[in-house]
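hey so i finaly got around to running the thing on SnoaL-like domain-containing protein from Polytolypa hystricis. pasting the sequence first so u can double check i didnt mess up the copy paste, my clipboard has been acting weird all day
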Amino acid sequence: MRRMSTDSLRRGRDAILDNLSRRSSRNRNEMHFSWDTNTPHLVVTADTPDFDPTTIQRFKDEGFETAYLPYNGVAKEYKNQLQVLEDPLELGEKYAIVAYGEAAALVLEACTKPMPKLRAVVAYYPTRIPNTSTGFPSSLRVQVHLADTRNNNFGTKHTCYTYEHSQPGFAEHDLDEYDEISDRLAWSRTIGCLREGFKIANDLEPVWDRHVNMKYVTKDLDGTISTTVEKPYVNYVPVMLGGDNYDELCQCYKESFIPKNPPSLKLRLISRTVGTDQIVDEMYLSFQHTQEVPWMLPGIPATDKQIEVAIVSVVAIHGGKISHENIYWDQASVLVQLGLLDPKHVPGGVRFTNGESGGKVERLPVVGAESAQKVLNKSSHASNQLLGNSA
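ok and heres what it spat out for the 3d tokens, dont ask me to read them lol
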């Protein structure tokens, strides 16, 4: 169920509808879009007069000239509108459609026939999927996102995804059915499909490298924050430190991160995986614990111990800026190296399902610096040492 429209939602809708222009013709139902010829063209369409302005803005932030086409419930009129969308386009210009609900079903049906300038179609939870033996034109990229309640038997060679624990509407921020996890997965795939259709290359690495350099090397707070979106989300997972808005993140970086890293801290990139809108870095981090490091060891005074730990950072980049980041590491390994966790000390009060107490367990399955050293050099330590005779 769509939530009540706010003034700002209505303003967003009106701004989107301003991109549309109607012109007289023999078919009074034809709708023509006023396109900016310098950017890839995108039509967002759904079966409501108002559509989620957050999603519209996200497409714009990714560089698409975006307009909204509402489906008014009259299928014949709507299909006529779809057929003339490309009329204003010049020679060589292309467009794509992202559709939701019943509009998505009608778009899928329409594009089984050639639409020469249409490069990609993304359909979110269509109410039905066309049963065709011929499929879609080979030049067209088609992607379908289904809620958990829908049958995912697409019946063609094109890509179809089903999102568990979701309902139709999961990708619209102003609906009660909105689901952040499903939306995030689908968004990455949608942007990938659109870029593939338009043959757009997008290099994420310079944005992320600049952010890392300012955060760890130059320690530039303002520069670091300038690389993020207006509402960033950062979570240092083992200690739940970070922030889910600009002010919180700025305070975290200012008070707990940038000035708090020991001068001995070194960071080495081990591997990097780059996706459509995400980067995953595997890194080796080392430092001497000469001061409190709140983002990793909040409340722990300096011990002068040497720390080595493998870190994984999962970063999302939207519109050329850092949107969110989750940072993972083995906190048990760090605590072992500080002497705060003894692998050989097993609490006696623990009861196991076989009735044995903790005293029967000889050691905890944790290690120290060896885990990071083996990431850096696979031959540094033998595998399976914790398995003992059972290996």
